[in-house]
Amino acid sequence: MDSYSCCLSTSGESKQVAKMAALLKIVSEESRLKLLCILRRGEHCVCEFAEHVDLSQSLISHHLKDLKDVGVITDEKRGLRVYYSLTNKGKYITNLLFQIPNKEEKQ
Amino acid sequence: MDSYSCCLSTSGESKQVAKMAALLKIVSEESRLKLLCILRRGEHCVCEFAEHVDLSQSLISHHLKDLKDVGVITDEKRGLRVYYSLTNKGKYITNLLFQIPNKEEKQ
DNA sequence: CAACTATATGAATCCATATTCATATATTAC
DNA sequence: GTAATATATGAATATGGATTCATATAGTTG
Description:
52% helix, alpha+beta, DNA-binding, 3-stranded antiparallel beta sheet, homodimer
């Protein structure tokens, strides 16, 4: 495995990078990151998000769909409401991401 | 700290989410992720990247600048060449990201 | 000095995706 | 059944960011 194997489209490493990019692209957008941040405290339905996050109901639904598509959240319908929560994958990734320190380092 | 503190623009948590988003936006793009992946094996100059990555010299420079701006890489000029390498922050973050498993989980 | 190599950079263009809007679907209550 | 509520969705638009292009800068060589 040389330094550039992640650039050979045939390499497993290249595919890993592509998959990681696809996941991070969805997860790292600020609005969706906020939704994930809220979900770390437990399940929430769309109307609860809509009350607290400064986004339209429609936009929230779109974002939740994207997050669901990459497998970091699931939903469960109960009555009129749809409750969203983190999957194991979602818990794993948000634990990872939210442990990144936000202070600047020298160097 | 309630469930929605990351949505109050005044909260520290909200700022943390914004900073994290800014960093991840840069780091998670596939081309830049490839550059980081290469840099994990040690320092490289722009012309080395250009030989192996399917991107123009100009584009590589732009990407490296973005990565440098968020503090994950530094550069050092030696002769005509500019050598890039990961900062401590860069090592920390790539170690985190590249440990994410790429298999799908059930649920 | 001129010619050459390696890199950086600003502006223009192109493209992906966030956002909006109108509307559809599903569930509940009456 | 109708009305009301919660959510989803597709298409249109707006916007941000990736890519290209032309060119500038800096260091090297002879």
